[in-house]
């Protein structure tokens, strides 16, 4: 099986206010087309790990492989490009640009990548919005739509550049059960229809149970995977 | 690689969503540039006017014969008294004609020099003005009126009558305005003048000359060079002064030294004659720039504050942009372009409003005895100041935007996202 994402002995310390060894020799991997969830108590370091995996946090020791390529220690510009092209990210608090329309929010990463023409990007964005049943929201301002809708827009934005892996930091943590179920269904469909790899941090046991594999973390270590 | 279309799109959205702050910041720049343009146009216009007041009446190089004792006394030529200390009491200058030797050939030679714009002959004489029982002392200068008008703004100071009227009237006189008032003479009237030797000569008033300096206007009058020569009973190569106008004022001292070395004549350059006037000009310019730069710095701080505020408000946006693949540099450019847009719009509107203000001031009546040709406040519409204005607007907004933008570049996205 091919690994989309793999870590080798990742360690991280929080240095302020006192030295704290938050991640200890993390070795995990996500295979192509796999839907993996990470569970653990608050403060066990699961979000910290996710931000390292997403390349946003570069202050760690160890190696991080994306599609077999070691991407730890690459320059910031290169990491930004990798985030843009290969990684889709969904936050707990549906982070959208409030002054932009839904469509513009979704288009933004593709415009940054600049590999497609404007018309192609619009068509692609609309296609994704339709797939997530939110095409009717396209012209609305992002701050004027409901929380569940925002999270689906955020997922659409994460998908615009056809990433290799979609990461989520408790993407359902802030949603009611109906919307949570909805998001979960979307994730499952993406895996099934597009063969997308997913790595989702969650608190929700029900959510985790429906994924292919759950990685349990405890005190900065992998307890079970 | 920076995708400017996307960057500028985001910058525009930010600016439009905070329209009030944007307008405030822009107005700050506008005000600064407007004040700079208005001030500098007005101040330099006034400066120019004051300079002209002096420059127009002072030739760049003035050639004349000075009466003074000989530098070489006869005793120095006698070898029997050498070596030795010569002590001579009561040295007196010998009689010397006031005319410039070989005046006309010298004049023609000067006219052939490439740096000389023109040279005019003059003949100055002490005379008395006689009008009825009044007898006033004064000076009469014979001039080549056409050359004077071409080379200086002499024509501007003829407040009544025309230069041509003098040229075409053989015994015409351009009377000093003060004299005309004292003797209550108007154009067309006749007056008599008497030379120092006692010859009386009738002249016809063709116009008034008003320099704006009362001491001059009360004694000075002008006639044609030929008329002056005839009044004094001299032939047509008798001239006492030559006024030289150069293309470049700065060459005057070197030129004066050259002429003194080559010819037996005194040559005084304009800088020697008006040393203090340059100082006044540069100090006035300094004040103008100090005020303008202060205004622009104040505007710059306004932009700095507003961009700083904007960045605090947009922390989340910055974090999102970084999370979805925008580099720190992209984010920096977003904020820099906001600053530059503010600077550009503010600068251009500042230039425009400043220009309109200058036009308004240019319409305000300003009458002064000293400057007969000036009817409104003088304004200098030098395009150079507009170039400086827009450059300063862009540079100051660049500096004001740089620090906040740098801060935005360095913001750690993880901290912001996790902080919530």
Q: In a nutshell, what does this entry contain?
A:
The complex is a heterodimer of chains A (225) and B (420). Chain A is α/β, with parallel strands linked by helices and 225 residues long. Chain A is 36% helix and 27% strand.
Biggest beta sheet summary of chain A: 6 strands, mixed
Q: Tell me the name of the CATH class of chain A.
A: Alpha Beta
Number of domains of chain A: 1
* Distance from first to last alpha carbon of chain B: 31 Å
CATH superfamily of chain A: P-loop containing nucleotide triphosphate hydrolases
Q: What is the ordering of alpha helices and beta strands of chain A? A: EEEEHEEHEHHHEHEHEE
Give the radius of gyration of chain A.
17 Å
Task: Find the structural class of chain A using helix and strand composition.
Answer: alpha/beta
Strand content of chain A: 25-35%
CATH level-two architecture of chain A? 3-Layer(aba) Sandwich
Give your account of this protein's structure.
The complex is a heterodimer of chains A (225) and B (420). Chain A is of the alpha/beta class. Chain A has a single domain (3-224), classed as 3-Layer(aba) Sandwich (Rossmann fold). In chain A, 36% of the residues lie in helices and 27% in strands. Chain A has seven helices and eleven strands. Chain A has helices spanning 46-53, 76-86, 102-113, 118-131, 147-159, 177-194, 205-209; strands at 3-14, 20-26, 29-31, 35-40, 61-66, 69-70, 87-90, 165-169, 197-201, 213-218, 221-224. Chain A has a six-stranded mixed sheet. In chain A, strands 1, 2, 3, 5 and 6 form a five-stranded antiparallel sheet that branches. In chain A, a hairpin with a 2-residue loop joins β10 and β11. Chain A is globular. The two termini of chain A are 16 Å apart. The model of chain A has no long low-confidence stretch (mean pLDDT 82). Chain B is α+β, with helices and mostly antiparallel strands and 420 residues long. Chain B is built from 15 helices and ten strands. Chain B is elongated. Chain B folds into two domains: 4-55 and 277-419, no CATH class; 61-70 and 96-270, no CATH class. In chain B, α2 (19-55) packs antiparallel against α11 (275-313), α2 (19-55) runs antiparallel to α14 (383-410) and α11 packs parallel to α14. Helix content of chain B is 54%, strand content 16%. Chain B has helices at 4-17, 19-55, 103-112, 145-151, 163-168, 177-182, 214-217, 225-232, 252-262, 270-273, 275-313, 315-323, 328-363, 383-410, 413-419, and strands at residues 61-64, 116-131, 134-143, 158-160, 172-176, 190-195, 200-209, 220-224, 241-246, 266-269. Chains A and B meet through α2 and α3 of A and α1, α12, α13 and α15 of B.
């Amino acid at each position: 099986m091919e690994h989309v994402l793999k870590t080798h002995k990742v360690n991280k310390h929080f240095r302020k206010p006192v030295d704290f060894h938050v991640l200890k020799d993390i070795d995990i991997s996500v295979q192509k087309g796999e839907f993996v969830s990470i569970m653990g108590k608050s403060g066990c370091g699961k979000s910290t790990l996710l931000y390292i995996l997403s390349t946003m946090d570069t202050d760690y020791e160890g190696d991080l492989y994306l599609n077999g390529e070691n991407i730890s220690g690459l320059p910031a510009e290169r990491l930004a490009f990798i985030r843009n092209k290969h990684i889709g990210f969904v936050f707990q608090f549906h982070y959208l640009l409030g002054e932009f329309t839904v469509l513009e929010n979704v288009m933004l990463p593709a415009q940054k990548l600049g590999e497609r023409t404007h018309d192609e990007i619009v068509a692609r964005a609309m296609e994704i919005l339709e797939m997530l049943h939110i095409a009717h929201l396209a012209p609305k301002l992002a701050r004027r739509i409901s929380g569940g809708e925002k999270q689906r827009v955020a997922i659409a934005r994460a998908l615009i550049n056809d990433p290799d892996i979609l990461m989520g930091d408790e993407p359902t943590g802030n949603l009611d059960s109906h919307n949570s179920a909805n998001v979960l269904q979307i994730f499952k469909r993406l895996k099934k229809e597009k063969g997308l790899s997913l790595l989702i941090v969650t608190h929700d046991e029900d959510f985790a149970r429906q994924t292919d594999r759950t990685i349990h973390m405890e005190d900065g270590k992998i307890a079970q995977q | 690689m920076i995708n400017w279309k996307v960057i500028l799109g985001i910058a525009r959205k930010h600016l439009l969503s905070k329209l009030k702050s944007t307008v405030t910041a822009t107005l700050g720049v506008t005000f600064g540039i407007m004040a700079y343009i208005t001030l500098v146009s007005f101040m330099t216009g006034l400066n120019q006017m004051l300079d002209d007041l002096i420059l127009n009446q002072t030739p760049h190089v003035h050639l004349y014969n000075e009466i003074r004792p000989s530098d070489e006394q006869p005793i120095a030529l006698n070898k029997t008294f050498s070596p030795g200390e010569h002590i001579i009491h009561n040295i007196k200058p010998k009689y010397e004609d006031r005319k410039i030797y070989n005046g006309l050939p010298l004049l023609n030679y000067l006219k052939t020099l490439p740096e000389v714009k023109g040279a005019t002959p003059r003949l100055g004489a002490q005379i008395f003005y006689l009008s009825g029982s009044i007898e006033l002392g004064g000076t009469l200068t014979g001039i080549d009126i056409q050359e004077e008008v071409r080379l200086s703004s002499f024509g501007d100071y003829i407040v009544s009558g025309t230069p041509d009227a003098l040229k075409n009237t053989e015994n015409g006189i351009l009377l000093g305005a003060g004299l005309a008032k004292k003797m209550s003479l108007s154009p067309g009237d006749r007056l008599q003048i008497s030379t120092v030797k006692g010859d009386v000569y009738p002249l016809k008033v063709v116009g008034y000359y008003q320099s704006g300096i009362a001491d001059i206007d009360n004694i000075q009058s002008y006639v044609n060079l030929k008329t002056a020569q005839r009044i004094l009973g001299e032939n047509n190569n008798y001239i006492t002064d030559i006024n030289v106008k150069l293309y470049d004022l700065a060459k005057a001292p070197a030129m004066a030294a050259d002429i003194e070395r080559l010819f037996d004549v005194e040559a005084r350059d304009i800088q020697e004659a008006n040393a203090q006037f340059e100082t006044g000009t540069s100090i006035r310019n300094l004040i103008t720039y100090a005020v303008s730069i202060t205004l622009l710095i104040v505007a710059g701080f306004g932009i700095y504050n507003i961009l700083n505020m904007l960045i605090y408000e947009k922390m989340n946006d910055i974090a999102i942009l970084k999370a979805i693949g925008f580099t720190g540099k992209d984010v920096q450019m977003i904020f820099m372009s906001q600053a530059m847009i503010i600077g550009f719009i503010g600068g251009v509107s500042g230039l425009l409003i400043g220009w309109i203000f200058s036009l308004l001031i240019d319409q305000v009546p300003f009458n002064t005895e000293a400057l007969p040709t000036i009817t409104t406040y003088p304004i200098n519409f030098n395009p150079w100041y507009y170039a400086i204005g827009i450059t300063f607007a862009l540079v100051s907004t660049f500096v004001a935007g740089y620090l906040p933008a740098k801060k935005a570049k360095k913001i750690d996205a993880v901290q912001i996202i996790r902080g919530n």
